[in-house]
Amino acid sequence: MDFRLIVVCLLFWSAPVWADTMDRLDNINTLLYEYPSRALEEINKLDNISSPIKLSETEKLRLSLLRCETYLQLGENQAAINIARMGEAKAKVLQLESARPYFLNCMAGAFTNFGDYRQALPLLDNSIELSRELKQAQSLINGLRIRGIIDTQIDSYGNASEDLRLAIDIFPELANQALNWSWPPLAHVQLSLSQLLAKRGEFKQAYTVIENALSSEPLKGKVKALVITQLANMAQLNNLPTSDTLILNAKNQLPELGSAFELAQSYTQMAQLEYLRGNLRRAIQLLEISLNTFKKENKSLEIIRTQRQLAEVLLAHGMTDKALALMENTIALGVRTSRYDELVICYEILSQHYEKNQNYKLALKYQIMRFNQAENAYNFIKDTRLLQLNTKLSKQNQLFKSETDRSIASVNQGFGVKSGYLILLTLLFLALLFSFIIFKTKQQAKRIIATPEPNTKEQEIERLLSNSKLGGFPLSLILIKTLQVYRDDLPILNSQLEKLLREQDVMLNYSDEEIVLLLPYTKEKGTLKVIEQIKELMTPLLHDKKCQIGYSKMQQQDSLSSLVKRANIQQLRHSKQHKVAAE
Fold it and tell me: Do the beta carbons of residue 151 and residue 160 sit within 8 Å?
């Protein structure tokens, strides 16, 4: 009887202790996004050998995860990668499969901060797949958020929007998860969505999203500083009267940041605001402070971005020699580290600078270099995506083979001499099953292709690109430059192009000086024939000027913007070849 009483007392005593420990870990998860330096102090206290709180193996594993996420916030990416690798290995040993996607996310986040998307994307795909299998809403939200950030950086806006909006929709599911691990605040995901919308030029929607993030929940520390800075940026781009007040609020949040790295990051964002407002001297001061910090901490990607931003401000301020020397140094560092996306921006800044100064030869040179780097960036991501697809196919084939081998082994064991017939029947059944799956897939693709036309031109284009990928049919894009056509003649050109196109083709005024044609079920040979017909139509409208037309072919990971970029590159190369031939 006494023994039972002792056990009951221990149970009553241990329950509140366990609950208190879990609450403390939950608080650290919140704290690491608000005040990461303080969160690290709390983690060190719990992890100390002299700590009065004795953690279970699961709690120790969670503490390692929180340390990993804290290091990400403090910019200690290599340390985060090391902890994530050890954490995932320990999760396998402890048979805690539910913990694995969280460590994969942390590792992917660190590689993303390094700009190494090739290693980050496969990790995120594995994490998201595991999260769905194991019903881990917390890791699914974070994985979708990080993948959305990467897709935003590589101009895959459709995928990014889908991931980020899905992550926001999943947030109510957090309450249903039995065991907490780690999750980002909702404001972080809304911030990423706002940045995506801003990059697409949708400044009003970006402002609305980030304004909702600020008003939906009480924010503190670093999260609040990031949200208010983004809100001030969007208010400035929307020319709202509240922008000055918001910028002042953003500056007042800077003392809340607890490390030099976080402060340097915020200074670069504040410098962008000052640049937009025309306060060039203040922008230069902030960027120089940030650059010194990044150099001390050896943050190569941040150095490239800050130097590029500083060079742009110096050019605007008239300090041309200093700006060009800094830009040259930035380009050399970008080439050395294969930062194609940053090189694209650097060459664009230089091209615009020389065009403004009427040095059109150098402007064209840097524009061509910009397009070359854009193609390198596209090919880099395309190879990464293909590597992912090959990995998935390899896993599926391996699974299919192992299942087949198991079936054959069981047949052999059970039926002895007659096993040959049964193996044959098994393989025949699998072949029929495989044929049925292919048939159903084709039928589904046909149904997708036969869907009614969407309401807007943008939706129609998105649907057309999606159908091309799902159905596997060819699609070509033709880019027509209309700069040489008189404004009054543009309606005539549009009318003639509409008569030339088929019913399923799509025409879009991509910009004031560009018309885009999307031709489904059209290979390169057919595209070239259409281009010749367009040239015949345009010749009377060009008044002896050259016709500028480019084209590109649809590939699996393409978006509209990447198709247009490649068509631009093709057109520039074609013009350059003709120019060299003429000389």
Answer: yes
